[in-house]
Amino acid sequence: MNLDALYSQLTIKSGAKLALVVLDGVGDIATKDHGEMTPLEAACTPHLDSLVARGCAQGRMIPVAPGITPGSGPGHLALFGYDPLEFEVGRGVIEALGLGLELKAGDVAARANFCTLDANGIITDRRAGRIATEVCEELCMALSSKIKKIGGVEVIIRPGKEHRFVVVFRGAGLEGPLTSTDPNREGEALLTAKPENPKSAAQKKTAKVMRRPTAFSCAALPISRIFRPSSSATKCGPPPWRCTPCIRGFPNWWA
Distance between CA 111 and CA 92 in Å, rounded? Predict the structure, then answer.
């Protein structure tokens, strides 16, 4: 059964206005600290209770399938009515389009975070302290001015909100997806991006572009504003107050 076709038959056009409010991250597990209740069960929610009492319909939604916890990409697609098993759109593409970038056929887009590493290259904060958006813009501007191409591949960098940004690789013979470099937890080193299909020459090329060292410096940026407000330093150092791009170059800020 094609669910899209079924939904289109059930749809009734209306002039009503709707507000979609996504409580991202509200789901959690019950803990002893909350009397074996989930944080949502333990929370005081008078406004939510009022909305529910006045609502004409309530229910649960399974975004992908029973027992599957989706990531942000498929989760948001499902919220807007797309079957994430049929429409596989990566977070990089969603982020790039959301920032107004016009993607071309063959582009490879990646959602990226700035992160903080210690002197041994171990992640101490996967979101670099949730830096301010204007700081992210400065960092992305510095990266863009230094990294325009890697080999024959054009590199496009655009800032998002806080620690988030997007990178688009544009060139012949590129293809995704690649494995993530983010270990999804602090206390570990960044991973190496690899082709999800080891037999794909295009994915191998893309992974090679990512791993290629790129020399640049962001010494002109007031890094102290980002990681160590009490310091008057205007260049990277000393550990662990170095921004990720300055430590090991290009591959790290893909996390």
Answer: 4
